Amino acid sequence: MSAPTDRRLLRSNGRVAHVSLEGQVKATAFTEGELHSINRPGPADLLNAPGGKRERQLLTGELFRVLDVERIAHGETYSEYAFGFAEADGYVGYISRSYLRAVQSPATHRVSAARAIGIESRDVKQPGTPIMLSMGSLVRATEREDNWFNTQIYTPHVGVNRWVRGTQMVPVGQYESDPVAVSERLIGTPYLWGGNSAFGIDCSGLVQMGCRMCNIPCPGDSDMQARELGETLPPGTPPQRGDLMFWKGHVAWVSDPETLLHANAHHMATAHEPIAEAVARIEAQGDGPVTRHARLV
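Structure (tokenized):
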């Protein structure tokens, strides 16, 4: 197999490359890399270059394989960025090193509510500093009392314990069956280009979130999803719930035969929209017609 030509999937920065590319690319060193997890409650931006622009995001507890570390000078100080790739989908990029920690104990639970809150006491009226977690975040539960879990949540430089209601999480390895139902929990979430969380999400992030919670492999960007997800349906096929509709640079779930669900800049949110209206609006704004109608199988 030849090395990918897409930079988003090429596990090499020209200096250090993953061992899977040995003999395929030029590099000073080849390495397996070191596995790290995201150690902040909010999403961590995955950048296209050290200090560059956001392309995707990783959530609390998600795994990132570090291949190299680069420093960016700021006068007498500097920032460090880890180069590597997300274990879940192979997306390559740079993450601030301060957002990473070496993997120690595996996560036990995944947040299934749109947003979960971790509090210092199971008495919800007690004062304390809450921590907000997005759907898809991974945590380790150390004890259970009633339907509360005492979880380890890592913030930069330190791990803290917070109680999270059991109804807001599922055990790692437990999956759902309807990716649209998962995505519908994020209705009203602000639109954020490159976003992958319940605090801000884009069209491909919404599709990936629904798929991941249902154990459906899914790449990060809409053009990748258009190439890899589902089976292409003939023009004129009636849409049904769970189908995907693609445009150049955009993707949407079919919520029902007349309605789409998508994160979009028109609403600046995740929202339902009639299919006919969305198709006409997107074409009128210059983004062209539907390029693919696919069905997950």
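The chain has three domains: 16-102, 109-171, 179-295. The mean pLDDT is 95.
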